[in-house]
Amino acid sequence: MNYQLELEKILKTIDMKHKPRLLLHACCAPCSSYCLEYLSKYFNITLFYYNPNIDAKEEFQKRLEELKRFVGLLYPDIEIIDGDYNSHDFEEIALGLEDAKEGGTRCFKCYELRLSKTAMVALEHHFDYFGTTLSISPYKNASKLNSIGLELEKKYGIKYLTSDFKKQNGYVRSIELSKKYNLYRQDYCGCKYSKLEREKRVYEKNLV
């Protein structure tokens, strides 16, 4: 399924005079940059920063503060809900999957963890839609993200906003915006397993 086309179909149905409320899970400022630029004219957006996968509290806080800085510059009316830092949530779902390949089962469990929490908060606060910025990354499996989101839509009875934000040069645009606003860009997803993969790649590259 082309999830970008599905998103465009949804956007065509929206009454611009009565914009629906969207709770958008945000992983960081760079990924949020293009997503907000694209979606803000269609939705009243609230960002939900819930990322227990991040390996250190300092890194979690650094990404949150950068998100706040960027949103404050361009979208001062958008609220950011801080999901608080609880690495135990991630460690619990990663148990037994420590050696799983990056981009595989452990990552899919992480998608489900963050999207489930987003859906529950959206339901609790009466949002019309929930979604995530994660699909903008070329390293994230958009098909898996969307299939999880659609299952949660059935479970919680709240609409999931399908997306593949990397399409139509969305990822390229996020890099442009990151450079323009000097956004902190990290080179790993946040979890300790991703960091180890990155360090391994750097080490092997230096051996060549």
Q: Would you list the SSEs in sequence order as H and E?
A: HEHEHEHHEHEHH
Structural class: alpha/beta
Q: How many extended strands?
A: 5
* Gap from first CA to last CA: 40 Å
* CATH superfamily caption: HUPs
Please give the largest β-sheet. 5 strands, parallel
Low-confidence stretches: none
CATH topology: Rossmann fold
Backbone shape: globular
Q: Overall pLDDT, averaged?
A: 93
Spatial ordering of strands, largest sheet: 3-2-1-4-5
What is the level 1 CATH name? Answer: Alpha Beta
How many whole angstroms does the radius of gyration measure? 17 Å
Describe, in plain words, how this protein is organized in 3D.
- The chain is α/β, with parallel strands linked by helices.
- The chain has one domain: Rossmann fold.
- The chain is 52% helix and 10% strand.
- Strands 3-2-1-4-5 form a five-stranded parallel beta sheet.
- The longest helix is centred in the middle third of the chain and has 20 residues, at 105-124.
- The radius of gyration is 17 Å and the shape is globular.
- The model has no long low-confidence stretch (mean pLDDT 93).
Descriptive tags:
208 residues, Rossmann fold, alpha/beta
In short:
52% of the residues lie in helices and 10% in strands.
